[in-house]
Write a sequence for this structure.
């Protein structure tokens, strides 16, 4: 009789992989929901990419940890990023949603919401542009190192917000845990995730007994589940070496009274 077993422990076991596959299926439906979200002028630009697996998630987490040190004056920045790196490791998968028009293809409505009196020229005049087109590669030396290559078209940034909202709504309906996080969103473009998008939002997704994205204690990078398990495994190995009696003669002989009871 065919059977499908699902459990979250031990991690990456066959039963856990089956559970993760369900989360990945849910994340794909979240991506579908993002694609169908409302769009300004009906102009599409939403881009989705799903990342999962130990090695890929570890690469993202380590990039976040490296980024946490780039703002040494802010302790809150460091602590938040270190905590979110743990969340990335504990997630079943990460859905990245970007918009490939925010940085180089304004809606051309001259609304001025992007921040200047020049209307859409505020975007065009701050990047290499010709014939009404923007080239993000040419003359980008002054903008290198920016986590977000602004200014951005506000309408399309709003579209990205609708897409993220639709995806999280779908997560709610599918009963999987999900939370938009800042730090993996920032490192996405450095890792060539949603490479055509000028702005990306990361949504870690999980279907675990305890939501790994809420009820987080302070200094979580010290007190995470993996840290505790690592410590317990060490203590277990050391405690077994306290005594070195032969296991066959370890237990004392039972008294006649105990044997009869």
């Amino acid at each position: 009789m065919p059977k499908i077993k699902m459990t979250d422990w031990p991690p990456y076991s066959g039963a856990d992989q089956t559970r993760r596959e369900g989360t990945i299926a849910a994340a794909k439906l979240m991506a579908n929901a993002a694609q169908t979200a409302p769009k300004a002028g009906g102009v599409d630009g939403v881009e989705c990419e799903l990342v999962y697996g130990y090695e890929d998630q570890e690469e993202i987490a380590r990039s976040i940890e490296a980024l946490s040190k780039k703002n040494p004056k802010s302790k809150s920045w460091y602590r938040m990023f270190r905590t979110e790196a743990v969340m990335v490791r504990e997630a079943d998968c990460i859905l990245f949603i970007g918009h490939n028009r925010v940085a180089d293809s304004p809606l051309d409505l001259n609304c001025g919401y992007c921040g200047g009196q020049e209307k859409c020229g505020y975007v065009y005049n701050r990047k290499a542009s010709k014939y009404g087109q923007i080239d993000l590669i040419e003359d980008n030396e002054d903008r290198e190192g920016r986590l977000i290559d602004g200014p951005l078209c506000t309408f399309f940034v709003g579209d990205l917000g609708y897409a993220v909202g639709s995806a999280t709504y779908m997560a709610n309906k599918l009963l999987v845990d999900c939370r938009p996080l800042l730090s993996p969103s920032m490192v996405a473009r450095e890792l060539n995730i949603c490479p055509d998008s000028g702005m990306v939002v990361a949504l870690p997704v999980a279907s675990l007994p305890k939501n790994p994205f809420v009820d987080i204690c302070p200094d979580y990078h010290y007190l995470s589940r993996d840290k505790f398990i690592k410590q317990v495994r060490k203590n277990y190995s050391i405690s077994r070496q306290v005594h070195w009696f032969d296991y066959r003669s370890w237990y004392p002989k039972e008294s006649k009274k105990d044997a009869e009871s």
Notes: The mean pLDDT is 88. The CA atoms of residues 10 and 16 lie 7 Å apart.
